[in-house]
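Let's do one together. I've listed all components of the complex below, 407 residues spread over two lines.
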Amino acid sequence: MRDLKLHPECMSNLVFDRVLGDSAEPSLRAEVLAHVEGCARCALRWEALAEQRTAFLERVPSWRHLHGQQEAKLPSKPARHLLWGGGVALAASLLLTFWLAPNVDKPGFRSKGGPRIGAYVKHGEQVTRADTGSIVFPGDYVRFTYSSDRPVYFALLNRDAQHATTYFPLGRETAQLEAGHDVALDFSIKLDDQPGSERIHGLFCAEPQQLEPLRATLEATGRLSPPPHCHVDVLTLEKKVE
Amino acid sequence: MKLTKELCEEIYRRHAPAAFRRAQHVLGSVSDADEVVHDVFLRLFEQPAQFRGHSLASTYLYSAVTHECLNRIRNRRTRARLTAERMHLWSASDPGTSAESAAVVRDLLAQLPTTLAAIAVFYYLDELSQREIAEVLGCSHSHVGHQLSLLTSWLKEQEKALCAI
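Okay, and this is what the predicted structure of the assembly comes out as:
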């Protein structure tokens, strides 16, 4: 797949935005300005971005202006900071008392209580519920679910024979999810053609967690020890060739 | 870290125009884009810890604005309004795209899983490279490549389905 829709020497809007917003290193700024001078397409793009930037700041010149404008649309709501403060205190007290016994990771065994992950497997046109130890096949689609009786910070990681991948979320840290039972995550994966075990780890936490250190540990050791105030549920699918 | 009013205004001046431009590009509405910018910056100013200095403000805001826009597209009422009205131009800088095309694109974004929708915005709308997408989202380059492959396959299936109608 071609990586850049722009010509390889051209810069993206992300780079242009950094320079226009005065948040780029001087060397990058010089590089961008030199390129814009010599590239007709990028010169037009640069001019358009600069004009749009000016138009926005003329219309909404400051944060105070935008905040006042938006707050004026909601006269019946209590002051946002007071509402937020109360909500955070309550949520924090609930989340920090969240604790479950560590998951016992044994083949064929998953703890019945506590938050858990699940999966539905689509094999051809047939959809079935999967549990640990279920047989799956290359080309099958798998959609994962989670169940938790309280809001959690959640991530889904996979460990196959060699690598660990973060399936969900896409960002740097766990995603905050509402309580729910068997809630389907909004993506599915297609299984590749390498036979073996796919060990999917559902990480349920009371506080946000950075994901890359956990993924790296899972890849290096094959195990994911739950950080403090977290619970890990493991679902193992056995991928076989038909 | 507590943000002073002056620092908030500085962050706003530097980054809000780009945030607004991108939000308007995705949502097609000035008022919706203003709301997105306001909500994203309010969260940032109220909880600066979520930024944590792990990335540049620009990459954090690219990601935050995109996810906020996609959440709004998924809101049923917003979707119905955007699809029904079909009045908004896709972008002032791209006058060749029709309002109907824009509505179709937003409908497709609403159908995509969050992860793929965000990557679609970064790749096709912002024209970011895979490396830049990985930087914005805080994931690996190979993961972005894998997701782009999934996205391309999904889009091809949608294209076939549309042509078959």
